[in-house]
Design goal:
By secondary structure, the protein is an all-alpha fold. It folds into 2 domains: 54-190, Cytochrome Bc1 Complex, Chain D, domain 2; 194-331, Cytochrome c-like domain (Cytochrome Bc1 Complex, Chain D, domain 2), CATH 1.10.760.10. Helix content is 34%, strand content 1%. It contains 13 helices and 2 strands. It has a two-stranded antiparallel ribbon. The longest helix is centred in the first third of the chain and has 16 residues, at 2-17.
């Protein structure tokens, strides 16, 4: 009897010390709604034919971080678009794809996409619901076909469940994949920076930030138009041509020589965290970017007329302008866990 009690006591002690298996809670996703901040224009994409729902968002989030979208199951959308840097690609000048291949452009940040009339640095994609086709099928990015993506997802019961919750049945097809991704990406709203709080009368700029804002309005806002901080045009901003890439920009889409070396004007929201900068990631810091506009403009026939003489800035003005640009960082967006990889 003593031996039995002793054995039972040891068993109880051992089992009581055993660590419970980790149970990962579902990421917050209850604040899923269409957002049009006060004073903003109406978005071009309003989910009219793709109603934004919690279930659609959750499916889109899973697909955004799903490596099965690539040929060798190694690369997801989230590989090149990382949440903590506003869905840019931290520290990478060019995008990285399957087999370690390099793309020829810097992965841009992702937010406020519903307002974009076109996508990619050259505007080669004109709708958010078809945009993912480009990286999925690009041979130096994901190098996969939509048909193969569908087949791979159909083998996973997890996705059958998510597609049923989002669309009413377990059917997995390319149209639903693209619609779900559009729901996740379309819900990437960034509108709660210090700049926004100042505009709403809830905060104040410092003296330096105010001087920087005044400089921005005078010297930068013609292209980086508030409140989205881009006018979505394509412009030659005086960069030298990267000899390794020979990227002609917008001309690759239109075939018009007048569009040579023109690239989409990026939004400056969250710009402090989205380094490296420019279409080829050539600049690592905002100081380098402003120095380019101050002294590095390359003259050419398609150079934007606003930059013919560069942008005149003193050293102190450069710092004031950078201090203002830091107020465009939306920490609520960067730290919102509903955009995180559900597998991490």
């Amino acid at each position: 009897m003593r031996l039995l009690l002793s054995t039972l006591s040891i068993f109880v002690i051992l089992t009581s010390c055993k660590v419970d298996p980790e149970i990962k809670p579902a990421l917050p996703s209850d604040d899923i709604r269409v957002v049009v901040p006060s004073g903003w224009p109406q978005p071009r994409y309003n989910f009219e034919n793709n109603p934004l729902t919690k279930e659609g968002f959750v499916l889109g989030r899973a697909l955004f971080y799903e490596t099965a979208l690539s040929r060798d199951n190694s690369v997801s959308c989230g590989s090149c678009h990382q949440h903590f840097v506003a869905f840019a690609n931290a520290g990478h000048t060019l995008s990285h794809g399957v087999d370690g291949k390099l793309g020829n452009r810097n992965a841009p940040p992702l937010f406020n996409l519903n307002w974009h009339p076109a996508f990619m640095w050259d505007g080669g994609i004109n709708h958010i619901e078809v945009q993912p086709i480009a990286p999925i099928t690009n041979p130096v990015e994901m190098d996969e076909t939509l048909d193969n993506v569908v087949l791979k997802l159909q083998q996973k019961d997890f996705y059958k469940k998510l597609f049923k919750e989002a669309f009413g049945d377990e059917t997995i097809n390319s149209q639903r994949i693209l619609k779900a991704l559009a729901q996740f990406m379309g819900a990437m709203y960034s509108y709660q920076s210090k700049y926004d709080m100042v505009k709403q009368g809830k905060a104040q700029f410092s003296a330096s930030e105010q001087r920087g804002y005044n400089l921005f309005v005078q010297k930068c806002s013609a292209c980086h138009t508030e409140p989205l901080f881009t006018d979505f045009t394509y412009r030659n901003n005086g960069l030298s041509v990267n000899p390794a890439l020979q990227d002609s920009g917008r001309m690759r889409i239109t075939g018009d020589p007048n569009d040579r070396n023109k690239f989409k004007v990026p939004s400056l929201r969250n710009v402090a965290v989205t380094s490296p900068y420019m279409h080829d990631g050539r600049f690592e810091t905002l100081q380098q970017v402003l120095e380019h506009y101050r002294s590095g403009i390359v003259q050419s026939s398609t150079l934007d007329p606003l930059l013919q003489n560069g942008i005149s800035l003193t050293d102190s003005e450069k710092q004031d302008l950078i201090n203002f640009l830091y107020t465009l960082t939306d920490y609520a967006f960067l730290y919102d866990k509903k955009f995180d990889d559900p597998n991490q």
